[in-house]
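Risk register update: the risk of archive-format incompatibility is retired. Evidence:
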Amino acid sequence: MKNFVAICLIAGLTFCFVSVVSSENSNSERNNILFSAESLFKAMKGEDYPAIWKFLTIKSKKAIVKNVQKASAKADIKYLKEQISSDFGIGGPLSKAYWDSYLAEFDPDMVLEHSRWEMGITKNKKAAIIIHYEKSKRPAILNLYKEEEAWKVGLEETFAARTILQNSQWH
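Archived output:
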């Protein structure tokens, strides 16, 4: 009987320890997710273009590079994808032109100061933040992805459908 009680006690303590560690890890991961998203919008607000680039997913970066390359080609200016990516990484003139244009249409304070944030589902290497802008009826769902052990914001993954709709005949 003493052995049974001892085993139950050890099993119970082990379960409690594992639960506490798991909870701490999930809170830490949640904080990392929120930190990455907030850092992106703060970088936008501060016009820190290299920092913006740092917090974007690979897919978002590729989409931006592709769009800049297409726009440049229309103006008879040819850039290699690597040149554009490098420029964005250092906040060069292409990066400045792109983000200045982007920020002329999007005010990061809408997200930072005038929205309520809540965590959505986090599963494997994907997370969602639900952003309720005070003047909007429906929230935006911001998608983040864990890449190279850091959480990155998926601007392309989040807003690509909106771009398609804006360019369609329905808009």
